[in-house]
Amino acid sequence: QVQLVESGGGLVQPGGSLGLSCAVSGRTFSSYDMGWFRQSPGKEREFVATINWTGGRIAYADSVNGRFTVSRDNSKNTAYLHMNSLKPEDTATYYCAAKEQLPYRSGHSPDDYVYWGQGTQVTVSS
Asked: How big, in percent rounded to 5, are the helix, strand and coil portions of the chain?
């Protein structure tokens, strides 16, 4: 059974930084592609970033490009999302997700992923 647990959310002022972690347990981690999504009340789940199993392919949503950094440490079975220059519009529940490497999917859609964490709240406010 694959389990994903996000952590690191909280309250931060605009312009601040916050780091999220996603710990994966139950199965092998290294073959999974990982994604980060966020969702605000009344809105659809929004793509944030993805990183493939080797860490060699990374993609970001335009809204976070240049501010957020996705990474992974396969030895720790953990994916990360480091968020800088945070804006109030970044406020959302952030979710990590995992998918198998094959069949190939872009990783930009929630439908591409099989395993999901429970989410962690990020609030950006003065």
From this structure: 5, 50, 45
